[in-house]
Amino acid sequence: MQDAVDRLTPLGVMVLALLREGDMHPYEMMRLMRARRDDRLVAITNGTMYHTVGRLERAGLLAEVGVDREGNRPERTTYTVTDAGYSAVIEWVRRELPRVDHPAEFRIALAEAHNLARDEVVSLLRTRRDARASVKSEIATGLRTAAAKGVPTQYLLELEREESLLAADLEWLDRLIRRLEDEEFPWGALAPTTRYLEQRKAARL
């Protein structure tokens, strides 16, 4: 399992997570992900999608469940996520959510965090928050030391920016953790909304 998790790409994670919502063919996956603006997070092209699906199938993380043809359209192979694929998503999100050295992967992990239990997500985000706070403290100490030594401000602008970004991120993390700790905040698998069903219908066209 660990080998499969290590080989997962961000797009692979999103494909497997998407298939939890229902069996789909790659064209429907692309249409649905673009409708949800997931292309903000990963590059979604015909080539990358079909390559990713092929790799996931060879790894046993998804499986073919049928081949359909509508009119003169090319055949479309429909896939389903396997138990191994679902487990791989869980382990990947669990690994990436607290990490501070993979910013691109964190965005995907956050988008798929609802696949984990609420309490576990809170714990992982607290770990991330502590690590980010430690980095901010180090930068603040460095800035004070530099100022005491008379280092000109123009040489410290990047560090000042990083400190400000970290402060904003910590404030956001604190708010998110408080929201998740509130049992009134919805979490986990939710019933399909009308908008979701409309997206699925459009993706099949």
UniProtKB/TrEMBL annotation:
Residues 15-87 form the Transcription regulator PadR N-terminal domain. Pfam families: PadR. It comes from the Bacteria. This is PadR family transcriptional regulator. It comes from Microbacterium deminutum.
